[in-house]
């Protein structure tokens, strides 16, 4: 009897946790910095997404912290932002870091989709940069309900911020871009052809390249399509 009661209490406890997290942690919108790969001296694209959006919003602003040696070349609209949205950005150095402010808003339009891309960022890394894993983070929240220089999502009329969560990203700096089978520092159709030939045994694999299978070939095909 005691065992049955214990199991019952465990079940109720787990059920309560599920209800709690479903109603709190996963109910708020999330601004997510994506992951990207880059070579020293190279260029890559980094995406910032808005997921789990649960209401219309008229604007978004974020401030990213990058280590010095990374430079933003451009910031473009993602698929969530219509032509009516204006976008502004600037970067500045401080405390051995590079800070990037990005602001977008619309006077007569709102973001209503649940998930999608907010910003597509083109960045470069210095030739001498040799760190392999670089966290890309948001600045700390300054807890201002209406104006938040760190990161904020405004409601449909821009009068106040929407409660939200943030997720950091990761930039992987390496001497080799995975999928670049011909070592030209890019992943293109030529690499996909090499991968397919390796699968068919028409090209011998080199010791420094792990065995290429169907999953890897599909990845390279998708990567080369962008």
Largest sheet: 7 strands, mixed
Global geometry: globular
CATH-assigned fold name of the largest domain = Immunoglobulin-like
Low-confidence stretches: 11-25
Structural class, by secondary structure, is alpha+beta
- The top-level CATH class of the largest domain is Mainly Beta
The CATH architecture of the largest domain is Sandwich
Approximate helicity band: 10-25%
Number of E strands: 12
Average pLDDT number: 80
Task: Provide a brief overview of the structure.
This protein has 226 residues and is an alpha+beta fold. The protein is 20% helix and 37% strand.
What does this structure look like?
With 226 residues, the chain is of the alpha+beta class. It has two domains: 30-173, Immunoglobulin-like, CATH 2.60.40.680; 189-224, no CATH class. Helices cover 20% and strands 37% of the residues. It has helices at residues 2-23, 189-200, 214-224, and strands at 30-33, 35-38, 43-51, 57-67, 70-77, 86-94, 97-105, 116-125, 133-138, 151-155, 165-167, 169-173. Strands 2, 4, 6, 7, 9, 10 and 12 form a seven-stranded mixed sheet that branches. Strands 5-8-3-1-11 form a five-stranded mixed sheet, with no helix packed on it. A hairpin with a 2-residue loop joins strand 6 and strand 7. Helix 2 (189-200) packs antiparallel against helix 3 (214-224). The longest helix is centred in the N-terminal third of the chain and has 22 residues, at 2-23. The termini are far apart. The model is unreliable at 11-25 (pLDDT under 50).
């Amino acid at each position: 009897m005691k065992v049955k009661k214990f199991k019952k209490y465990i079940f109720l406890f787990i059920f309560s946790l599920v209800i709690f997290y479903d109603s709190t942690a996963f109910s708020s919108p999330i601004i997510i910095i994506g992951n990207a790969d880059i070579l020293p001296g190279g260029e890559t694209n980094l995406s910032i997404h808005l997921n789990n959006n649960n209401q219309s919003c008229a604007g978004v602003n974020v401030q990213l912290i990058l280590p010095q040696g990374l430079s933003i070349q451009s910031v473009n609209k993602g698929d969530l932002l219509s032509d009516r949205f204006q976008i502004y950005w600037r970067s500045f150095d401080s405390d051995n870091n590079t800070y990037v402010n990005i602001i977008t808003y619309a006077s007569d339009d709102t973001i209503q989709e649940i998930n999608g891309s907010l910003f597509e960022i083109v960045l470069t890394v210095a030739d001498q940069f040799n760190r392999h894993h670089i966290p890309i983070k948001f600045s700390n929240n300054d807890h201002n309900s209406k104006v938040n220089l760190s990161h904020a999502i405004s409601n449909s009329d821009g009068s106040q911020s929407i409660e939200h969560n943030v997720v950091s990203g990761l930039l992987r700096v390496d001497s080799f871009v995975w999928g670049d089978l011909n070592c030209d520092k890019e992943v293109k159709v030529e690499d996909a052809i090499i991968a397919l030939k390796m699968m068919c045994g028409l090209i011998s694999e080199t010791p420094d390249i792990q065995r290429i299978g169907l999953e890897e070939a599909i990845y390279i095909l998708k990567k080369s399509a962008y």
